[in-house]
């Protein structure tokens, strides 16, 4: 059984894309990305949601960089690898779930003060080093090659605790064939 991703639409902004099982490129292997920008004629931008780097904001920033209350509030925020572009930059990101619209709300490129404000408002805050980017038409070519599976965001993408198993959890929901693939060991030779 083969699963075809949804056809590309004018804009995939706000959608989640899962790396197809055949995508073995190390950076994107079993990745789940939120597309924060998508313009077929201008390119795309997003963040990998399931690559925690094992560090917190407090591990990476000093009190000189992030003084006082901002450091106290944001020090324990987990840091994720958002992608291979601009990995020397740290950016804050807020995610929340709208019960009314049953959809994801997010804000990116936040300053520390904006991240604190969003956290007070009930949003989950993450920090990312790097981001994922595609030039004009590049993501569309990858979609035509069935490298990505388009999904509507689900509430589970917000939870940090399930981030490392997010790809397998989301893949299992697609079909019985995908459930089998999700439950395979990553290294079949080690089985």
Strand/helix succession: EEEEHHEEEHEHEHH
C-alpha Rg (nearest Å): 17 Å
**Tally of domains:** 1
Could you tell me the mean pLDDT? 90
Distance between the termini: 23 Å
Q: Write down the CATH topology.
A: VC0467-like
Strand residue percentage = 25-35%
Structural class category? alpha+beta
Question: What's the CATH architecture name?
Answer: 3-Layer(aba) Sandwich
Overall 3D form: globular
- CATH class label: Alpha Beta
User: What is the number of beta strands?
Assistant: 9
Number of helices: 6
Can you tell me about this structure?
- With 191 residues, the chain is of the alpha+beta class.
- It has one domain: VC0467-like.
- The chain has 6 helices and 9 strands; from the N terminus they run E-E-E-E-H-H-E-E-E-H-E-H-E-H-H.
- Strands 1, 2, 3, 4, 5, 6, 7, 8 and 9 form a 9-stranded mixed beta sheet that branches.
- Strand 2 and strand 3 form a beta hairpin.
Provide keyphrases for this structure.
34% strand, nine-stranded mixed beta sheet, alpha+beta, 191 residues, VC0467-like, disordered N terminus, 6 helices
Topology, element by element:
Elements: E1 16-19, E2 32-39, E3 43-48, E4 52-56, H1 57-60, H2 68-74, E5 78-81, E6 85-98, E7 103-110, H3 112-120, E8 124-134, H4 138-144, E9 148-151, H5 166-172, H6 176-183
Parallel strand pairs: 5-8
Antiparallel strand pairs: 1-2, 1-9, 2-3, 3-8, 4-5, 6-7, 6-8
Provide a compact summary of the structure.
The chain is α+β, with helices and mostly antiparallel strands. Helices cover 22% and strands 34% of the residues.
């Amino acid at each position: 059984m083969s699963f075809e991703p949804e056809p590309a639409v004018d804009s995939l902004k706000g959608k989640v894309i899962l790396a197809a099982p055949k995508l073995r490129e190390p950076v994107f292997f079993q990745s789940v990305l939120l597309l924060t920008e998508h313009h077929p004629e201008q390119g795309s931008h997003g963040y990998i949601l399931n690559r925690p780097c094992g560090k917190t904001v407090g591990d990476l920033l000093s009190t000189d960089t992030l003084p006082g209350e901002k450091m106290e509030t944001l020090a324990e925020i987990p840091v994720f690898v958002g992608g291979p572009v601009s990995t020397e930059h740290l950016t804050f990101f807020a995610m929340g779930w709208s019960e009314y619209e049953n959809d994801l709300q997010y804000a990116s490129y936040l300053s520390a003060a904006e991240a604190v404000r969003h956290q007070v408002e009930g949003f989950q805050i993450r920090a990312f080093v790097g981001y994922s980017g595609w030039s004009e038409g590049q993501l569309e070519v990858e979609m035509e090659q069935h490298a990505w599976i388009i999904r509507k965001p689900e509430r589970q993408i917000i939870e940090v605790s399930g981030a490392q198993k997010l790809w397998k959890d989301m893949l299992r929901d697609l079909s019985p064939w995908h459930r089998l693939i999700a439950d395979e060991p990553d290294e079949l030779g080690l089985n």
